[in-house]
Amino acid sequence: MENQHSEIRKKLLSSNKNSRLEKFGRTLTFICIAIIVFVVGMILLFVAQKGLSTFVVNHVNPFNFIFGTNWAPGSIGPDGNPAVGALPMFTGSLIVTLLSALVATPFAIGAAIYMTEISPKWGTKILQPVIELLVGIPSVVYGFIGLTVIVPIIRNTFGGTGLGLLSGVFVLFVMILPTVTSMTVDAMKAIPRHYREASLGLGATRWQTIWRVLLRAATPGILTAVIFGMARAFGEALAIQMVVGNAVTMPKGLLQPASTLTSILTSGIPNATPGIQTNALWSLALLLLIMSLIFNLAMRTIAKRSRIK
Questions:
Q1: Which listed residue, of 7, 117, 165, 268, carries a Cα 20 to 30 Å from 73's Cα?
Q2: Are 162 and 16 part of one and the same domain?
């Protein structure tokens, strides 16, 4: 029996067997990566082809599309060109994304510092599942809470309808906070222990160590967390559509109804007719994709320059 086991083990560990397994593993991995690259490339190509139809087929000036303020696909604007100005939605998306990330980041950093440097182990065991649970809540739930809680509070406090960019900022802040916090916690935990020991050994206090050493070392990870938070905020459709008001006008204040790229896409696609209306919506989708790529590239560049040398 022992001889049989020995022979089987020699066969499994033979160079030929390992070589075949290694080739199979490399081939399988390459196929998986190739499929992912192909799918992503096809999505980009499809969106680009559909989005460029507005400029190629309908002969809309890209400058008028990006900087125009009149959105009424299918009609002609005062300048004699199709009324497909995307600047109001572009501005609305940019405002709610930047403000929600700006508000969420300090809270996320504070929560991550507490969970990794201050809280006892039992506190972390309680907070970590809570954060993970918040990440998994569907966006429609956040939108419904915003519509029934945040909008009435803003209406009673500041007047008006309560629908507007401020409501969207609060909803997106709550939505992206768990994501940014969870990734910031991972970034703080990934800092080598000798960073803390060296700082404390030199006589620094705990808060000096956190502020001058740990946060600086975790900056790339924190910026990556902000990237993911902004990506979710920028691409969120249903929740923001429920509270922003969907008014296709240039934002004149946080309390005025406005619109975003995603809110116009979700509300306009079901009723769009083939032609300039559908093509214009695809152009908004292309603009949304380009803006997401720009955010990612910019934040990655900042993260690379922020690493400790």
A1: 165
A2: no
